[in-house]
Amino acid sequence: MVAILLWTIGAKRLGDVHVSAPVFMVACGIVAGLVFGDEITHQLNTHLAERAVELILAVLLFVDAVEVRGGFLAGERGTVLRLLVLALPLSIAIAFAVGLPLLGLPSWGAVLAIACVVMPLDFAPATDLLRDRRLDRGLRHALAVESGYNDGLFSPVLAFALLTLGSADKEPSGPLFGAVHAALWAVVVGVGMGALTGLAHRRAVAMRWTGTPAVRIAMALVPLITYSLSIGVGGNGFVAAFLAGISYKVGRMGRRGEDRDLAHRELSSVEDLSVITSMIMWFVFGAAAVLVFQLGFDGRSVLYGLLALTVVRMVAVYVAMLGSPVRWRDRTLLGLLGPRGTTSIVFGLLAYNATHAAGADIVLYVMTVVVGGSVLLHGIAIPFGLRRSATGTGTVSKPS
Questions:
Q1: At residue 132, what are phi and psi to the nearest 5 degrees?
Q2: Are 123 and 144 in contact (CB under 8 A)?
Q3: Which residues form the Cation/H+ exchanger transmembrane domain (predicted)?
Q4: Could you confirm whether domain 21-121+131-390 is CATH 1.10.10?
Q5: Given 30, 205, 352, 357, which is the most exposed site by the fewest CB atoms within 10 A?
Q6: What is the pTM of this model?
Q7: Are 127 and 320 in contact (CB under 8 A)?
Q8: pLDDT digit string (tens) for 34-89?
């Protein structure tokens, strides 16, 4: 919290010298990791930390769901559906298949959890890519929508993987039944809570019973209440929050919800809450990076992380786009432009908390390699390559 307070004092000045909030928080986390390393390691592996991370994930998933602009699939239905319905499960399958022999973990559940950690998109470390007019507008919109929904779609798979890690049953049927049971309750609670609250707000605003300030407060409460209700009945709390975000938008906008967006003034409170929770996660990532460096060099984890950042996603995207009108250049960009960020950190911490012994260190190691590598690849290398390409072709378009 102190690090966030310090950032608020110099946020504008830091921005002027191109030091983003995630970079500042990572730096503070590194300092904390160097000073309080053993204490941080102990705190990360507690039930309280697990619940706190789940609650943060619930907020992030809710915001991702309600923030998608331009309608449910932002006008890029064909491309987005291929990315979400085909490329997403393919990427998990490929990451899982690569991880089984490469990581050498005795538990397939741990490998599946790691696959869920390394694949979700998050443009927090590379926000300029979504505003860069050197990239096709449709491509940018498709990536924005994918990043808004993909973490919520990864969540049930991660929940199943975590259940296998915590189950004494060696057969997958037991954890699978538990995951389905939790998912069903998440649907009931999430869709019900989101739709009813959204509809109530739409009618109340229309009848002038309430206004924007009150709706802002409610939107910050919806993911927290939804998470608590779902956990209380045995459901998956963060999946419920994601579904609540989708159904809230539909209930709030009514028939206009397909092609209209929620007003920014209604989203501001929950967006601010999302920013704070994201900054906390970047701080934790910095501290975790110190712990990883103390483990020494692990070639298998580094190789797996690099493959996940590049080859795994690109193969999944290429296969998903077979027969589509998307140009090959854009298919390559869709495969390359997949930054990892807050979602991978949160998923990684949940997997770390659920994994035992040496497997936990590998989870933390891979998460650090993927997120750190993404900052370098998507935050520095690819923007530099785009600038060089634009200069070579005489293009003068700049990020908007």
A1: -80, 110
A2: yes
A3: 2-384
A4: no
A5: 357
A6: 0.87
A7: no
A8: 888 777 777 777 778 888 888 888 998 998 888 776 555 555 678 888 999 999 99
